[in-house]
Amino acid sequence: MRVARERRVARERAGDGKRTRSSAQSSARWRARVEASERPNVDADASAAIIEATSTHPVSQTTSYSFARSGFSAECERALNAQINVEYNVSYIYHAMWAFFERDNVALKGFADHFKAEALEERSHAEQLMEYVNLRGGRVELQQLLPPQTEYDHPEKGCALYALELSLSLEKLNNDKLCELHRVAEDAGDAHMCDFLEGAMMDPQVQSVREVAEMVATLLRMGPPGDGMAAWHFDQYLQNKA
Predict the structure, then answer these.
(1) In b/e form, how buried is each residue of 132-171, taking b as 16+ CB within 10 angstroms?
(2) Where are the beta strands (DSSP E) in 70-210?
(3) How far apart are CA 162 and CA 141, in angstroms?
(4) GO biological process: what's one of them (predicted)?
(5) For the whole prediction, is pTM greater than 0.90?
(6) Residues forming the annotated binding site?
(7) Which end of the chain is less packed: N or C, by CB atoms within 10 Å?
(8) Quick one: pLDDT band at residue 37, thresholds 50, 70, 90?
């Protein structure tokens, strides 16, 4: 009885092995048929063209390579990153000026609100440039910001005139930097970058220079430099304007 049972178990195991091998062979034949049916019918010339195209334009698997980059020079990329730093530094200074005029012992809310708006505007310009760098397939590289001064009172000019003249200098500096950036784009033959700068950046910047220049002229007409009442009246003008 024991011998018969062992023989029966051996026959069952042998049958299972045959079925497993048969199933594996069938599965392999099925995969081969599927792969053959899905394989595109490409002639030799087309295959050679595909191989050449993929070898000429390799696809990187890392984030260091941009799929969208086209006609965007490294020099333009560096110049745009430098301008982003300029915009953020100017915004940083305007933030400090806003905090100064918001103090309880300065109490010129119109000036505070004006410089806060200027700070946000300069930051938005930096973000526009960052978006453009990404649009062109570049890499944004933020740089260190310089700490701005905290005091804006001047013994002769007073805080109002001193701050506006500083603002005018910053706007002119920004305009000069944008012109330099435009020249870099021109030298690189980057028509799209030139168009972007002219439409989105340079025209608003020229308008800002003119606006601040008129503010300086208006304040000087209200009274001599350092006149506290002139600063107060101009502050009221800024509050009403807002």
Answers:
(1) bbeebebeeeeeeeeebeeebebeebbbbbbbbbbbbebb
(2) none
(3) 33
(4) iron ion transport
(5) no
(6) 87, 122, 125, 171, 205
(7) N
(8) very low
